[in-house]
Design goal:
Elements: H1 2-18, H2 29-50, H3 55-73, H4 87-90, E1 95-96, E2 101-102, H5 103-126, H6 141-164, H7 170-191, H8 205-220, H9 231-253, H10 260-284, H11 289-318
Antiparallel strand pairs: 1-2
Helix pairs in contact: 1-2, 1-5, 2-3, 2-5, 2-6, 3-5, 3-7, 5-10, 8-10, 10-11
């Protein structure tokens, strides 16, 4: 039960607070976000583990969650004035009329929620468990969490519609639900496929962590590119970076010696990226400088403590 509760609250803490979307002074919103973020992460993890599947299923499930959250739930994918920002203008260069959104918007949504909102929290909490393949919820707990997720997501959707007055078209919702269903099916299919081992030894966990930090930081560095750089070129660059990262991790995880510390290093490197990203993002969200600075320092300390404890536990289980 403790791991389930930890994941329930860690997911929104990473997805909203560490990112800088929500200031730490707004503690009450944690209970508003937890049913969707935490409920979604728990459901994904439980379904994967209960059906004997691993990360090959969790990642596509997380991508499905990403499209569900920013699509049918809060409709950011299609709302050109979401959050009071002219998102339509920001993403105009890669806009696809047939989808009602842009390629870069989809890339941002998939990156943020697949990696940080779902996969990183799951990997970190599982690092504290002796057997990461065991379910955490019982026969009653699973449907309860599912109901909490649906209710929390519906409430957030209603709040968005009430505050913005924006509702996506039937066509937009249709392709989003179809994509979500396709990713879920893909997860179930990939999760059952056996992956052959390869010759070679996995790199040290420190190398994996640095690589994860570098790759995830590179994704966010596009924010600092000159305006003259074509956003279409940036979108292509994202595809190449993701393809290279997936290929590299797939190669590493099939190597001898790959284990819990490597998985944790992968998640930890990405988590550290959000520490520096959160500082800049908080400024963009007009959060007071003092609050943003103190939050960044506090989160940096919390991340360091959390990862240190997780690595100690992972190393102890390895002995």
């Amino acid at each position: 039960m403790i791991p389930a509760v930890a994941l329930f609250f860690l997911a929104p803490l990473v997805g909203e607070y560490l990112l800088g979307n929500t200031p730490v002074t707004d503690v009450g919103s944690l209970f508003l976000f937890a049913p969707m973020y935490g409920g979604g992460a728990l459901l994904i993890r439980e379904v994967a583990r209960r059906t004997g599947r691993g990360w090959a299923a969790i990642v596509p499930f997380a991508a499905a969650y990403a499209l569900l959250e920013e699509g049918p739930i809060d409709m950011m994918l299609w709302n050109p004035a979401y959050g009071g920002v002219d998102i339509g203008a920001v993403y105009a260069e890669t806009y696809v009329p047939a989808l009602g959104t842009s390629v870069q918007m989809l890339q941002d949504v998939l990156t943020m929620h697949t990696v940080w909102s779902i996969c990183v929290p799951i990997a970190i909490v599982e690092a504290f468990c002796r057997d990461r393949t065991q379910p955490w919820l019982g026969k009653v707990g699973l449907p309860v969490v599912a109901a909490v997720f649906v209710a929390g997501s519906a409430a957030l959707c209603a709040m968005q519609i009430s505050s913005t007055g924006f509702v996506a078209s039937a066509g937009q919702l249709g392709w989003a639900f179809a994509a979500v269903a396709g990713l879920v099916v893909l997860g179930f299919w990939l999760g059952r496929r056996s992956v052959p081992a390869r010759d070679g030894v996995a790199p040290a966990p420190a190398v994996v962590g640095v690589a994860a930090f570098g790759a995830t930081s590179l994704v966010w560095c596009r924010e600092f590119l000159p305006e003259e750089v074509s956003q279409r070129v940036v979108a292509v660059g994202w595809c190449l970076l993701v393809a290279a990262a997936v290929a590299l991790v797939f190669r590493w995880c099939r190597s001898a010696g790959w284990g819990a510390r490597h998985r944790l290093a992968l998640a930890g490197g990405a988590l550290v990226t959000y520490v520096w990203v959160g500082w800049f993002h908080a400024r963009d969200m007009d959060i007071p400088r003092t609050t943003a600075l103190l939050s960044t320092i506090g989160f940096a300390i919390a991340v360091a403590v959390l990862l240190t404890a997780a690595f100690k536990r992972a190393s102890a289980d390895r002995l």
